[in-house]
Automatic annotation (TrEMBL):
GO biological process: proteolysis
Protein's name in the database: D-alanyl-D-alanine carboxypeptidase family protein
Domain of life (superkingdom): Bacteria
Gene source species: Paenibacillus foliorum
InterPro entries tied to this protein: DD-CPase-like (IPR052179), VanY-like_core_dom (IPR003709), VanY/YodJ_core_dom (IPR058193), Zn_M74/Hedgehog-like (IPR009045)
Keyword Signal included in the entry's annotation: yes
Skewed-composition ranges (Polar residues): 52-61
Coiled-coil spans in chain: none
Length: 305
């Protein structure tokens, strides 16, 4: 997710023009069935790959939220908006404001916050008060100098990040961290500021509500080139660093969490800079199949209804 992004008017226009899908997909606008990219459902629906996929070493989030419900294909445009994606089961906390349409949607609390495959998005949130217990400072450069929680990652993710950065550097594309861990309190502040600035509907397209940010897991980090140019901005997509990450992140256990064309599934616009650690077993599988974490985990129900 973007941290203090300065979207220039031109960039906004460009974004609005080019990625109309993104705008429809990231928000809570469910009226865009025909504009939602058609290849996302196709890839996502593949039952041979998805439904039978083993979930190595992880707690199935669906177990907590309705294990009797088979995963719904991510045909965001065709899903009956009146039908809840998950039964209003025991973990339902509160109805979520889904934005302009005002549809109530239950947000589930994940049962496995410490699992490196934990799914945190607009439908699944971290338990109240969750703080990762093994946060460390990875030994990598950041685009800022000060000591900050933003440098922290969980231990395993930090070690993997060091390897990733070393490999990028060896390929003459040194990277810098932009923002990693974010506490619940920080996310609260960030989100509130965005809402104040752009309004809730717009803010929801690029920022997570408290408890629903991957940065709170200690497993996600935004990265950029060492100059910090295009840090957490759309222009990062055109950089060599972005291309390198796209090709190599999975070798080190990271995925590009919000890929292009999957906005209707992830609930977020394309973020080539946002890396999520899941471990190499899962990251390589996800990269090979070209799916999102939602699809991989069989939680392909659109999160942006
Ligand atoms: Zn991010």
């Amino acid at each position: 997710m973007k941290l203090f992004v300065n979207l220039k008017p031109a960039a906004v226009l460009l974004l609005a023009g080019i990625v109309i899908i993104s705008a429809a997909g990231c928000g809570s606008d469910s009226k865009a069935p025909s504009t939602v990219d058609s290849d996302a459902p196709k890839t996502a629906v593949d039952p041979a790959k998805n439904s039978g996929a083993p979930q190595p070493g992880q707690t199935d989030p669906s177990a907590k939220v309705g294990s009797s419900t088979p995963s719904t294909p991510p045909t965001s445009g065709t899903v009956d908006p009146a039908k809840p994606s998950t039964p209003p089961s025991t973990t339902t906390q509160k109805p979520a404001d889904s934005g302009s349409k005002g549809q109530a949607k239950a947000i589930e609390v994940v049962a496995n916050p410490t699992d490196k495959a934990v799914l945190v998005n607009k439908a699944y949130k971290l338990p109240e008060g969750y703080v990762p217990q093994d946060l460390v400072d990875p030994n990598v450069p950041f685009i800022f100098k000060e000591k900050s929680e933003k440098r922290k990652l969980r231990k395993e993710a930090a070690a993997a990040l060091e390897k990733l950065f070393k490999a990028a550097s060896d390929d003459k594309l040194p990277l810098s961290g932009v923002s990693a861990y974010r506490s619940h309190e920080t996310q609260k502040t960030i989100y509130a500021n965005y809402v104040k600035k752009d309004g809730e509907e717009a803010a929801n397209k690029y920022s997570a509500k408290p408890g629903q940010s991957e940065h709170e897991t200690g497993l996600a980090i935004d990265v950029s080139g060492t100059t910090g140019k295009c840090a957490a901005s759309d222009c990062f997509a055109a950089t060599k660093e972005a291309k390198w990450l796209d090709e190599h992140a999975a070798e080190y256990g990271f995925i590009i969490r919000y890929p292009k064309g999957k906005e209707s599934i992830t609930g977020y616009q394309y973020e080539p800079w946002h890396l999520r650690y899941v471990g190499t077993e899962i990251s390589k599988d996800i990269a090979k199949r070209g799916v999102t974490l939602e699809e991989y985990l069989g939680q392909a129900t659109p999160v942006n209804k």
